[in-house]
From TrEMBL:
This protein's encoding gene: gpm
Spans traversing the lipid bilayer: none
The protein's name: Phosphoglycerate mutase
PANTHER family: BROAD-SPECIFICITY PHOSPHATASE YOR283W-RELATED, PHOSPHOGLYCERATE MUTASE
Pfam families: His_Phos_1
Gene3D superfamilies: Phosphoglycerate mutase-like
One of the record's GO molecular function terms: phosphatase activity
Signal peptide range in chain numbering: none
Gene Ontology cellular component terms for the protein in this record: cytoplasm
InterPro entries, alphabetized: His_Pase_superF_clade-1, His_PPase_superfam, PGM_Phosphatase
Length: 219
């Protein structure tokens, strides 16, 4: 049986001093701490098999995910160079992008983002099935599609895909529970964490899910 593992990595901390809901907005790169978080995850991946054997790297097109992917890839490439392996190159896929959100550009709890406003309260009436933007079902389905495409394109290999909290967790809930709906405050997808999904290449059966948080102690 041939097995492909897709390692879904969440981006590192973002530079956001005004606490804006940035969603898909441009101009929100990694903070210095976020860069250190990505570096910690990259060092972790460069230190252990099977991460060292990643054959393909892809990320959401947003700046923070591209930065995270590049920092991690640089660490893995340092290992690969010393073992005379070809260098990895980062690619992007729109389907890995952050979920759309009607609150984008606002500061949650203040002004137009204040939850006490009637129009906003209606949007968050059911946090399991959000009405403020892209549904969990749509998020999970596009993530599932890109992951299975990666399985088909890289049979028997390791793949790194850098995305965002909501897309990663929505897909995990779909695969584990059969439904992507969840309580948003109970997600287990820390910054720069790794959620690894292993699939049978022929049947697309999910074989295992594992989780690692190499950047947990980064200050």
């Amino acid at each position: 049986m041939s097995v492909t593992t897709v390692h879904l990595v969440r981006h590192g901390e973002v530079e956001n001093p005004d606490h804006i809901l940035y969603e898909r907005l441009e101009g929100f790169p990694l903070s210095e701490r976020g860069e250190r978080m990505a570096a910690a995850t990259g060092e972790f991946m460069a230190s252990f098999a099977p991460f060292q054997n990643v054959a393909h790297v892809v990320s959401s097109p947003l700046e923070r995910t591209r930065q995270t992917a590049q920092i991690i890839t640089d660490r893995i490439n340092t290992f690969r160079q010393t073992h005379h392996l070809p260098a990895l190159v980062c690619h992007t896929d729109e389907r890995l992008i952050e979920a759309s959100n009607e609150f984008r550009g606002t500061r949650i709890g203040y002004g137009q983002g204040a939850l006490w406003r009637p129009k906003n309260w209606k949007l968050i009436a059911n946090l399991h099935k959000p009405s403020w933007g892209e549904s969990y079902e749509h998020i999970a389905q596009r993530m599932h599609e890109v992951v299975l495409d990666l399985v088909d394109a890289h049979p028997g290999q390791q793949v790194l895909a850098v995305s965002h909290e909501s897309p990663i967790w929505s897909l995990r809930m779909l695969l584990e529970q059969g439904s992507p709906e969840h309580w948003m405050f109970a997600r287990r997808t820390a910054l720069a964490s790794i959620t690894s999904l292993s699939f049978d290449c022929d049947s697309h059966e999910l074989l295992s899910i594992s989780y690692a948080n190499p950047a947990a102690d980064v200050a």
